[in-house]
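ok new one. same drill as before - C-alpha cells go in, u give me an amino acid for every spot. 80 of them this time. try not to just spam alanines like last time pls lmao
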C-alpha cells in the first residue's frame, strides 16, 4: 500500500532539522535505557539503597541519555 500524501497529493519528507530532532530523541531513549541498566548495576554493586540508589541512577541515566542523544543528533546532521 503506497504512503498517503499530503493535501496536494505529494509526499513530503521531514526537514533536516526534524531528522536531527528525531535522532536526538531516539538517542536519548537508548541512552536512558542503557544508563538505567549500567547505572543500576553499578549502584547496587556499590551497595546503595533507597534515595541514594534513585539519585545515582537518575544522574547516570540523564548523563547517558544526553551524551548518546547528542552523538545521534550530530550523526544525523552529518547525513542530511
Amino acid at each position: 500500500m503506497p504512503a498517503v500524501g499530503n493535501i496536494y497529493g505529494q509526499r513530503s519528507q521531514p526537514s533536516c532539522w526534524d531528522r536531527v530532532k528525531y535522532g536526538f530523541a531516539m538517542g536519548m531513549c537508548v541512552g536512558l535505557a542503557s544508563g538505567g541498566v549500567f547505572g543500576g548495576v553499578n549502584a547496587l554493586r556499590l551497595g546503595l539503597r533507597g534515595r541514594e540508589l534513585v539519585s545515582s541512577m537518575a544522574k547516570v541515566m540523564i548523563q547517558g541519555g544526553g551524551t548518546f542523544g547528542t552523538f545521534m543528533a550530530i550523526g544525523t546532521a552529518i547525513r542530511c
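The chain has one domain: 16-79. and btw Helices lie at 16-45, 51-79.
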